[in-house]
Amino acid sequence: MTATPTTGKARRPYAARVSVDVRRDQLMDAALTILVRDGYQAVSIESIAKEAGVTRPVVYGVFK
Questions:
Q1: Alpha-carbon torsion (50, 53, 55, 59), positive or negative
Q2: pTM, entire model
Q3: What is the CATH number of domain 20-62?
Q4: 3-state secondary structure the chain
């Protein structure tokens, strides 16, 4: 039996490919959730990406 090496780092769940319109709605919902829950000062590209389960480049790509 061979052992599979691990990095000890948890992988993020895979964000499935969706249309730009669906992704934009998802990101806007994430931003609104953060705004209501944590206030204006907590809203950032990083926090929106984290809430939506995507990376920052995905956020920038949707709103380019």
A1: negative
A2: 0.74
A3: 1.10.10.60
A4: CCCCCCCCCCCCCCCCCCCHHHHHHHHHHHHHHHHHHHCHHHCCHHHHHHHHCCCHHHHHHHCC
Would the pLDDT of 41 be above 70? Answer: yes
- Is the per-residue pLDDT at 22 higher than 80? yes
Which sequence spans correspond to the domains of the chain? 20-62
- pLDDT above 90 for 62: yes
Spatial distance between the Cα atoms of 52 and 30, rounded to a whole number of angstroms: 6
Is 54 in contact with 15 (CB distance < 8 Å)? yes
